[in-house]
């Protein structure tokens, strides 16, 4: 038995390498997988390395109403002996066959044609009463017409599926993916047919202790296909990936790379920025990779007050990709954060990927723009997109609207620090986030986690993530939201992770989870780190419209007074250079059970669940107006 298993393993690995080589994609450390099920953190079965700027490719959107079947016992995936249908000899038998009865006597116990439908992109929790708290498997099916051309490569792309996805095209398994907030794609060329095609996805949002995030989070576990689904068409040789940014510490050089893939990857690539009069060519090596490092005359730098984006064209190997890229530098010097060499104060706000007015995950530019517009109304120049990678549309919108971004992976609270699969999963999600958004000027911070409890295994785990982030991108800051430590009346940071990251960034809930409004001013911060201090969370719950005195919890007045007290406390930190109070708008959470004040909502929003601005909204805006006068835009 063992001999056979080893042979399968060898075959599986060999196939991966041969495919990877043919496509010009190096099989990457995280990509090694055992035949059958990929290890957590590995790029999924037959998954392709990301295609950069998928929206810039010729593509068909598969968004729309998908039929769905709720499958709490995974009856459409396992037989009654709990054997996976798609691992059987025939590979058939699962709901992904989309089988129809052959005649009136034929036995088939599912039917997508008669099933209800839901919007994709869109979580299922907010689209059907019986799915509001559902955790498990839902099958989703879409039908579409295609006319594949010989010599072209077809990629089936998912912006995100929470949490685990198994994807089938015309009954053939393309692969599986774990991770609820990062894109993935499969090579669909072989399975794609002329005419009618059937794509079926098994989506499963079950939480797992060893997953990223783990079982305990303070946000709703929205399941399903929560972002765009596209079928992209690529030429036989294509521009798979690229990075083009100003060099770290030298704004007169453009640095990055181009990665070609497909039949003949070693083809010259021309990069041009017509408006800047920049054109240069690079010659990829045999694996399709070319490094970019060229001098450039001064460009108009991207900044919140002037979010300049340049049209950039990459062409080579018969492929051409257009992108809009902003160029800026971000660095720290002592306790200052320098944007384009000038000190800046990060006037921020934290937000979840959820618009209180439109139940569920953000669905498109409309509700994303509403959230970011609210942030602009606060006079923010910075947003913390908590606690997981938001969509590519969101970071492109931030590019356009001039909002700097703190991007974060959901390494949140009590992760399984000693599990190597969990570390691989975290590294995979961090890598996918950085690879997707490495050309977005708005993204200035990569955060490797939030409020993770200090410990030897955790310190090693987080240190590994910091190294991964720095290895992938040396042009941005790397940080995390740390926890504080109280010594009597002093608030300090005693976290070894603080030595590895670029900011002294931490969450503190003076006046809410400890001390009250009346007591919090007795405390003082004693931050002994020669780094810019960014307070990544403070706040208080307030039920919008509930008014009382400033000592009555849950009232708008209590929240408002707490913000005023926070500004007084934080002004005592010499190195304070930013803050992202918690949180822009009320959001849903299964951990918030107070029947009157919460009702499964976290009420720390400055905007209520019916879109009304609470008193503290105006207090923060007034404070930011003063900060802008003092520190500049
Ligand atoms: C924590 C955590 C948030 C949470 C918030 C709260 O610090 O980072 O995700 O929602 O505090 O308790 O409201």
The value of Rg in angstroms is 25 Å
Instruction: Identify low-pLDDT runs.
Output: 1-44
Strand content: 25-35%
What is the share of helical residues? 10-25%
CATH class of the largest domain, named: Alpha Beta
Q: How does CATH name the architecture of the largest domain?
A: Alpha-Beta Barrel
Give the overall pLDDT as a whole number. 93
Count of distinct strands: 37
Major pleated sheet: 8 strands, parallel
| CATH topological fold name of the largest domain | TIM Barrel
Bound molecules: alpha-D-glucopyranuronic acid
Helices and strands, with pairings:
Blueprint: H1 2-22, E1 58-61, E2 64-70, E3 117-120, E4 137-146, E5 153-158, E6 161-162, E7 164-169, E8 172-178, E9 184-187, E10 195-204, E11 224-225, E12 229-234, E13 237-247, E14 250-262, E15 269-273, E16 278-282, E17 289-295, E18 310-316, E19 319-325, E20 330-333, E21 336-339, E22 342-343, E23 346-351, E24 354-355, E25 358-361, H2 365-377, E26 382-385, H3 392-401, E27 404-408, H4 420-437, E28 443-450, H5 456-472, E29 477-481, E30 485-487, E31 490-492, E32 504-507, E33 524-525, E34 533-537, H6 556-570, E35 576-579, E36 587-588, E37 601-602, H7 615-631
Helix pairs in contact: 2-3, 4-5, 6-7
The chain binds alpha-D-glucopyranuronic acid.
Alpha-D-glucopyranuronic acid binds at residues 218, 387, 450-451, 507, 537, 582, 602, 604.
Domain Glycoside hydrolase family 2 catalytic: 331-627
InterPro entries: Beta-gal/glucu_dom_sf, Galactose-bd-like_sf, GH, GH2_Domain-Containing, Glyco_hydro_2, Glyco_hydro_2_AS, Glyco_hydro_2_cat, Glyco_hydro_2_N
Domain Glycosyl hydrolases family 2 sugar binding: 61-235
